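Let us work through a complete example step by step.
Step 1: write down the sequence.
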Amino acid sequence: MVNERLSQQIKFIVEIDKLKQILRQSVIIGSKKNENDAEHSWHLAVMAILLSEYAAQEIDVLKVIKMVLIHDLVEIDAGDTFCYDEKGNLDKEEREQRAAERIFNLLPKDQAQEIYDLWQEFENMNTPAACFAACLDRMQPFILNYHTNGHTWQKPGVNSTKVYQRAAVVKENAPILWEFVQELIEDAITKGYLIR
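Step 2: predict the structure and record it as tokens.
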């Protein structure tokens, strides 16, 4: 007979498989298929491993990996809110908080608290690890957009000012990556992928 703790853990594992169904605005490079949240989180985890040397402060790479793997789990209930959707972002925090309480509490209490704390730390961006995780979360869609001729940047209301504002966290938390982001955005403008 399976013990209660393992039963809760398996229930959570089954539940988070739904992340594969949550589609994002970005499309996969070389495809017209929208990226899903699980693909996005995996990509961020690999980026954390490869790019951690560019963090402005010393970071706990394993903690960053944990954060990027769990940061979008709340979207199972709350849905993916397009970062440039002003109306959709009005109640995003409330929707995601409700989702966090339901989804994370499927786990045993100690693990639920650990996952919740990591998610909250990521959302608050008040530690070096969380700030670096946020840098990666901003950079990854930029890379996809650049390599798909500005797919998401072509949506109404998106311009370089908004893209720069979205990337601002990278400037102080990963200056070398910021240089890369600036070059990418400016080249996207030159190529007509992004309007000034």
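Step 3: interpret the result. The chain has one domain: 4-191.
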